[in-house]
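Notes continue from the previous slide.

Worked example: a multi-chain complex. Inputs as given:
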Amino acid sequence: MSFRQHHLLQNLPVDLTRLSLAEWDEFFGLLGFSSKSKLCVYEAVFHHEVSDVSDIPGLDDSEIGTLQRLVIIRRSEKHALRRSVDGSYRLTIELHDGHQAETVIIPEWQDGKLRKCSASISSQIGCFFGCSFCATGRMGFHRNLSTVELLNQVRLAESVIRSELKTDLTHLYFMGMGEPMHNYRAVSDALTVMRDEAAPGPPPSRITISTVGLFRQIRMLAMDHPEVRLAVSIHSADQETRYRIMPVSSRLGLPEIRDALVFHMRLTGLSPTVQYLMMDGVNDSPDDARKLVGYLGDLSANITLIMFNPVPEAQLNRSGQEKTDHFITVLEQASFPVDIRWCYGEDIEAGCGQLKVRRRDDRISFSMRHKQQTGEPLQ
Ligand code: SF4
């Protein structure tokens, strides 16, 4: 018996919604289920909302009895839905342990028609990395979300989009609370499950993973999921400035991140998006723009400038129009495509880089919203 099998048997009943795909194989290997029965349980747990083993189709009585003795299926539930005056939604999901995850749904209209409807999901409760501009970073790290919890956010977002907007989820972003690459195993498993058409979520080419630059995981993503898009938050091409606003960058050197971006691009053929939060007096001078140009060099990247919603505790302000215009001019002169992303939805406590999560009894908060001005679909 492997260590993992031993561990699983030591922790009965096993919560099927907490297992990775590798653990899933180990566990059902131990139970001796046939491939067909294993697939029935997999589809019930990963693709659908089944929470009672007796409701799983295709199993015989003895298999149902085995599962009733050995497993539980804990589900998350929609807890609250708030609509912003700008038409976006904030979906709060109650997890089995009292934590709450938040998903933001953003419909985008053009000429009176719904052009795109995206969801930004959380990958962790809190975050380990403590970026100075981010409310989530101030919460500390609570826990990772499991693969099923990630999929459940997507499924609940799809159901809200269908009932409220009568349309489908077109794009999915792992840009909510937490650093998705710091929860790589669960995120990667969720991407694997979503390859199946019966699973929730859009096709992989319409999924984007955002990261502060965890370069090993960027390489792993390129190898494991070459169709999935990548967005990297650089925020400053000056290592010292970056360290001041993103303490994690002491371990994430800019050269290593760039090497990983090159690796990702060569392997996938996709241009990464470089995200840059425009902070007044911190990273928004023409010199900062030139440093970014120098850093990216001949990398074929799309740059997204994020118009920052001030976070009171962080004492940071959004860059003014004039500075932003100069910044864009420098980037465009170097032939980089530039998009602007606006944050909005303050009336439902939703603003770029501000994530709050709430446990039943203590208040934390979250949000992540965006709007692209160009009219082009987000990549
Ligand atoms: S910006 Fe991202 S990585 Fe930084 S603290 Fe916030 S959630 Fe974590």
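Summary box: The pocket of iron/sulfur cluster is lined by residues 127, 129-131, 134, 136-137, 177-179, 212, 353 (CB under 6 Å). The chain has two domains: 3-72, 77-372.
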